[in-house]
Specification:
Layout lengths: L5 E6 L4 H14 L26 E7 L5 H10 L5 H15 L2 E3 L7 H4 L12 H18 L4 E6 L25 H7 L10 H11 L3 E4 L9 H9 L4 E2 L7 H14 L2 E12 L2 H6 L2 H19 L4 E8 L30 H8 L4 E10 L45 E2 L5
Parallel strand pairs: 1-2, 1-4, 2-3, 4-5, 5-6, 7-8
Antiparallel strand pairs: 7-9, 9-10
Helix pairs in contact: 1-2, 1-3, 2-3, 5-7, 6-8, 9-11
């Protein structure tokens, strides 16, 4: 086996998304899983001569007191990950666990702070946090003789910050102070508006490492941090990975635009049953996620239709396999729409803690209300990694009948995360 040359440093390294990605990488290294779902497995990428799977080494930052093995077992219990894969990867999980260091809690918000272990350092200033994070990243790169490190933020959504550092539709350089101005604020914790995700970005980019933000948190979006990346001649990208409702929007909205359909309204409902759901149950954290989900349509369509996005947390109680959901106390439930004899195994897709995504879209078809037709879409399943932003997407078997007036409602359904 060749020596790993590329480091992947995960922020939120023991969360559901990170654990799933780590298990996937381990499975690819061992030939236990295929490349289904990997865009880099498509033919156009073959010409780039990508690094082999054994060329990557994983480390990261985490604030919770949990092990990768325990998180993997939780995903198995939720039927999100195959138990055989986890069993084969236990030794690798333990090795990666030893390369995970305590993260920072600077401006993560009270909901995320409550999840943190007492052993996580409380940094006195943003500068202190950045320097401590950099020491961890440098030690990872140097002790393993890595050519480069890619820092990927897959942590929980932070509360939104003020407009002084937020990006706009024109890009990260549209507003915000310069890097020289922002760097001085790192010494002033009361004045520095940056959350933890941006401190991780600064730590990475200042070292010349790459930074990817898979969350709707601020990350590397401010103009000053973009300037830092250019000064260090490195790269950064991302603002919320598209894996569920936003993925559906990014697929359907261009279709409507290219078919010359004016979208007048768009409503999306999300139900989370995982750790991300707990965090997004806080209205302050939820606002940042909703803003991210709602931001996409205007950029794709060129105008902003009337929209509404809801996010709800569904607390799910574990039920043993084979336990019959039909109980004596539920006799007569059939009258309320529940089948009498279904067992848990028949309900699994309904109760797993995955995001349920529903869409209702109203639009005008070429301005002619007379040409609306009934349409049906074949049901299919798209699998994504389990965790804070990954979904088992199951579009509804059919479209709603188009309404007799100028509007049409399309209902996209998903089995829930």
């Amino acid at each position: 086996m060749s020596r790993p040359s590329m480091g992947i440093w995960l922020v939120g390294a023991r969360g559901g998304v990170a654990t799933t990605a780590i298990l996937g990488l381990c499975g690819l290294k061992e030939g236990l899983v295929g490349t289904t779902g990997l865009i880099s497995g498509l033919p156009p990428f073959a010409a780039l001569e990508p690094l082999g799977w054994d060329g990557f080494l994983v480390g990261g930052h985490e604030i919770r007191d949990v092990s990768l093995s325990a998180e993997a077992d939780r995903l198995v219990s939720e039927r999100a990950i195959d138990a055989t894969l986890v069993s084969h990867c236990k030794a690798e999980l333990e090795r990666i666990d030893r390369r995970i260091r305590p993260g920072t809690l600077f401006r993560v918000g009270p909901t995320i702070e409550r999840l943190a272990a007492s052993s996580v350092p409380r940094d006195a200033t943003p500068r202190q946090a950045v320097e401590r994070l950099q020491e961890d990243m440098k030690d990872f790169a140097e002790s393993n003789r890595l050519d480069h490190v890619i820092v990927v933020n897959v942590s929980s959504t932070e509360p939104a910050v003020g407009p002084s550092v937020e990006p706009t539709d024109d890009g990260p350089a549209a507003i915000g102070p310069t890097w020289a101005e922002l760097e001085r604020l790192l010494e002033k914790p009361e004045e520095c508006p940056l959350p933890a995700s941006s401190l991780y970005a600064i730590a990475a980019l200042d070292l010349g490492y790459s930074y990817i933000n898979f969350t709707p948190s601020l990350g590397s979006a401010p103009a000053a941090i973009d300037e830092l990346a250019r000064l260090r001649k490195t790269r950064h990208m991302g603002c919320d990975g598209k894996t569920g409702e936003t993925l559906m929007k990014s697929v359907l909205a261009p279709l409507f635009a290219l078919r010359n359909l004016e979208v007048m309204s768009w409503v999306g409902h999300n139900i989370f049953g995982n750790m991300d759901g707990r965090v997004l149950d806080d209205p302050v954290n939820k606002k940042a996620k909703v803003t991210s989900k709602d931001h996409l349509l205007g950029k794709i369509l060129g105008y902003r239709p009337q929209t509404h996005v809801s996010i709800e947390h569904l607390r799910i109680t574990h039920i043993s396999l084979g336990q019959t959901l039909y109980r004596r106390r539920n006799r007569g439930a059939k009258k309320k729409g529940l089948p009498r004899l279904r067992t848990l195994t028949q309900y699994l897709l309904d109760i797993r803690p995955k995001t349920n995504v529903q869409h209702a879209v109203g639009f005008v078809q070429n301005g002619n209300p007379q040409i609306a037709q009934k349409q049906r879409a074949a049901a299919h399943v798209v699998h994504h990694a389990a965790g804070r932003a990954n979904h088992n997407l199951r579009p509804a078997a059919k479209f709603f009948d188009l309404l007799p007036d100028r509007f049409a409602a399309i209902h996209g359904n998903n089995a829930g995360l």
